[in-house]
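Appendix B: complex inputs.
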Amino acid sequence: MIYLDNAATSWPKPPEVLEAMANVLEQAGGNPGRSGHRMSIAAARVVYDAREDIAQLVNCPDPLRVIFTENATYALNLSLYGLLKTGDRVVTSSMEHNSVMRPLRDLEQKGVKLTVVPCASNGTLNLKEFAKAVTKGTRLVAIVHASNVTGTIMPIADIAKIAHRAGALLLVDAAQSAGVLPIDVQAMGIDLLAFTGHKGPLGPTGTGALVIGGNVDTSQITPLARGGTGSQSEKQEQPEFLPDKFESGTPNVIGIAGLGAGIRFVLKKGTASIWEHEKRLIQTLREGLAEIKGVKVYGSPNPDGSVGIASFTVKNKTVSEIGQRLDEEYGILTRVGLHCAPAAHQTIGTFPEGTVRLATSVFTTMDEIQQTLKAIEKVARS
Amino acid sequence: MNGVILFHTTAMAMKAEKALTRAGYQVRLVPTPREFSSDCGIALRFTVVSKEAVIEVMAKNGVEIAGLHEL
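Resulting structure:
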């Protein structure tokens, strides 16, 4: 079997991830921050260590500004609903996933002014056009770091300058880039970084985080959920301090343990070397696909311009037929369709049919890429 | 002296534990003593020469404390 659906969720996970999760069940089974006994403290330590690992991964100076969530979607919703009020202006791109687009369309109905800046058909953003849309007084710029359809990487540091010049905060959806691309929230000027734990960070599903930059006034962000935090228990109102303000209810300790172990694996390898590896794979894949008769590849032609994602279609064949044949005849697992990003598919001209998406991970090998190219060639021919 | 430091949140207690351990102090996480706070969480017990030394380590590492009591 060749697993090329890593943009949906990465597989396999490092053995350390499984060990860390089993260890919580066996040794650290208490509720973190609720009781004061040794198992509660052990669980709290597991959660805090993962906070530090995430802070290190993205160069966030304060681990308490790392907010655990169940996925990137929750982190994005927390940022968007927490920050935007009627009359606020928000600017985004036409390459966004529905985890950004659906909350924004809903907020638009509620009186938030939304501008969606169209991207080119190869998924790239025109910075001049974007800067024009980010007018003075804009509250927020929300942008994907790397498209889940084409892999296209957005110029985050340049977008941050545009946002900050207008007085806006920058929210980055790093679902496809965290754990793969080097991310430095301070150097890149990212105010809010949302990511999921089960893709590049190699953790389990049900984990994610929102990293809040040091310049963000968190009194301006309303929590999505309120409840027990183990702190200020004498009060019936939600505490204002971090991370408790945004983390109500018992957290996913087992998942967070796995996420921490996944991130430590990534830190040991280094995102620079992970990206270098995936870049080689995806370049080979893109070039090979482009040579197959009837195949069209989407996305940026720039070899540095994409994470390990390649989307393609085959002339006179449906994407579902290709996906099914690759699975059943060759054991190659892909994802077909719209990838929860209708706006991105409209941008690249593949709506509503969608594409076949191939996505690599740190564990994908060049041999698997070569085998996949051979299989696609055969499927495209017959 | 012996003392106990209280925190608003467990995460901050963890941060303090790491900072004080790194600075070479003997510390131990314990259930928050009820006489000082009604929080359900944990506090940090320490044994040091001076209260001021502990406060300095806290300040240096960006640890906010909710209270410090001598025992």
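Residues 2-70 of chain B form a domain with the Alpha-Beta Plaits fold (CATH 3.30.70.100).
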